[in-house]
């Protein structure tokens, strides 16, 4: 009988405040979707960093006739200079492996890496990319010692550390994550305010019923329970809508990002499901706690 009464009170509250309930559901859905998107981007960055950490290399590009570096003097690197550089690299304690890549191999790898951008590939001809040494380090953090040792060496045009490129790219992803979480925080604040107003309006409309329940000896918990569950149900519905938005976010944002940008690894559905569960639970808890605090602070029932 008590369960039936509580469910009846919940339905009455939701029906009487239908407009505010719908607004609350929409606000919670947007907030949780943005919150989940921020978590997905965070997982994407972490997974990509873990994937690429052991694959980071230092590229030492050698002189060519087209080089703008004055050290090269508009001349190709000589065989002797190439052998000397390779010997120096192999003796360095920071270096794990040294691989020489000629112009043809560099152009082939370039075409494979940017196969998805045919216009970019067509504008680059074989020979535009100079030959180089691709150096794998024992510890990617020690690239500065290798770079400083190779710069201004005879036959060296430039030294590029892939870690710096990755840092800039991941900084952009971190910026997107912060933006999504910031907007989500604003939406959460709006959701809390809507929950408070909805609960206060619902309690005011049912002040006669709650007064009668107080007279017959009902406990505060029993009186407050329908209002708290109304907020929790609205949060649950909003969380379910947010899960649909997160699936679209995974398809349209995360997967497309991983497909278009080869620096990003693919994010599995298990992570998405976990983020959806966390978002739904957070939405329910947010609305339930907001309802409880509103009743304790503003309503003496």
TrEMBL record:
It is a multi-pass membrane protein. GO terms for biological process: cell division. The chain crosses the membrane at residues 21-41, 178-201, 222-248, 268-295. It is found in: Cell membrane. Keywords: Cell cycle, Cell division, Cell membrane, Membrane, Transmembrane, Transmembrane helix. Gene3D superfamilies: 3.30.70.3040. Residues 56-159 form the FtsX extracellular domain. InterPro entries: ABC3_permease_C, FtsX, FtsX_actino, FtsX_ECD. Its main location: membrane. Forms a membrane-associated complex with FtsE. NCBIfam families: FtsX_actino. Belongs to the ABC-4 integral membrane protein family. FtsX subfamily. Part of the ABC transporter FtsEX involved in cellular division. This is Cell division protein FtsX.
């Amino acid at each position: 009988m008590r369960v039936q009464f509580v469910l009846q009170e919940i339905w009455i509250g939701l029906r009487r405040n239908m407009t505010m309930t719908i607004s609350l559901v929409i606000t919670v859905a947007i907030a949780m979707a943005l919150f989940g998107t921020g978590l997905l981007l965070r997982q994407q960055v972490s997974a990509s960093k873990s994937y690429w950490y052991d694959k980071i290399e230092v590229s030492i590009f050698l002189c060519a006739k087209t080089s703008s570096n004055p050290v090269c003097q508009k001349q190709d690197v000589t065989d002797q200079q190439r052998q000397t550089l390779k010997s120096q690299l192999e003796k360095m304690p920071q270096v794990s492996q040294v691989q020489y890549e000629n112009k043809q191999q560099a152009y082939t790898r370039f075409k494979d890496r940017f196969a998805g951008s045919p216009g970019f590939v067509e504008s680059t001809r074989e020979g535009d990319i100079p030959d180089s040494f691709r150096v794998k380090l024992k510890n990617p953090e020690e690239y500065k010692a290798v770079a400083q040792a190779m710069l201004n060496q005879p036959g060296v045009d430039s030294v590029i550390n892939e870690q710096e490129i990755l840092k800039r790219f991941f900084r952009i992803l971190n910026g997107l994550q912060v933006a999504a979480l910031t907007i989500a925080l604003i939406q959460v604040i709006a959701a809390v305010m809507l929950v408070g107003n909805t609960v206060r309006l619902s309690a005011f409309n049912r002040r006669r019923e709650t007064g009668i329940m107080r007279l017959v000896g009902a406990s505060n918990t029993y009186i407050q329970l329908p209002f708290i569950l109304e907020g929790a149900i609205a949060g649950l519905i909003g969380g379910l809508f947010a899960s649909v938005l997160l699936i679209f976010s995974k398809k349209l944002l995360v997967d497309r990002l991983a497909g278009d940008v080869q620096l990003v690894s693919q994010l599995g559905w298990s992570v998405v499901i976990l983020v959806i569960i966390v978002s739904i639970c957070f939405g329910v808890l947010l609305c339930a706690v907001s309802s409880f605090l509103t009743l304790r602070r503003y309503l003496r029932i």
